[in-house]
Amino acid sequence: MSGIASYAPFLMPPLRLLIVDDSNVIRRRIERCQRLPQLQVVGTARDGREAIERFMETDPDVVTMDITMPNMNGIECVEELVRMKPGVLILIVSALADKATAVEAMEKGANGFLNKPFSDRELNEALEELLDGA
User: Least packed by Cβ within 10 Å: which of 15, 25, 93, 96?
Assistant: First the structure.
């Protein structure tokens, strides 16, 4: 392959990432530690209601979502975001490790689950799996 077509992967715009967690420490950690060149952080939110506002402002392709948050929890927010944009990819990032919660999140439209605490490597692997499965 020659010419511009061989450079096509580099010309694709990055996927937009929205980070949703009530912990500022976790939001900053995800923002700082994600190393995928195809992802660009376009916003952060502290709860489900703020996530919906940021979602409408930034139109992200990928969302990391905590479950336990004030105002609107992650499960409710996942359902609303998927209703707004069915193709959005959502990675649940939560300390709630019970299978019922994970299953409920997946039933509502989440695409993956990462337990807290997580390492940088685990975060990046989970994001890679999310994108590879799209």
Answer: 25
CATH number of the domain enclosing 66 = 3.40.50.2300
Cα pseudo-dihedral 30, 95, 53, 33, rounded to 10 = 0
Residue 92 lies in a domain: yes
C-alpha–C-alpha distance, residues 26 and 65, integer Å = 11
pLDDT per position as a tens digit, 47-60: 999 999 999 999 99
Q: What is the pTM of this model?
A: 0.89
For the chain, report the end-to-end CA distance as a whole number of angstroms. 25
30: burial class by Cβ within 10 Å (0-12, 13-18, 19+)?
Answer: buried
Summarised one tens digit per residue, pLDDT across range 64-85 is: 999 999 999 999 999 999 999 9
Q: Tell me, yes or no, whether 88 lies in a domain.
A: yes
Q: Tell me how many domains the chain contains.
A: 1
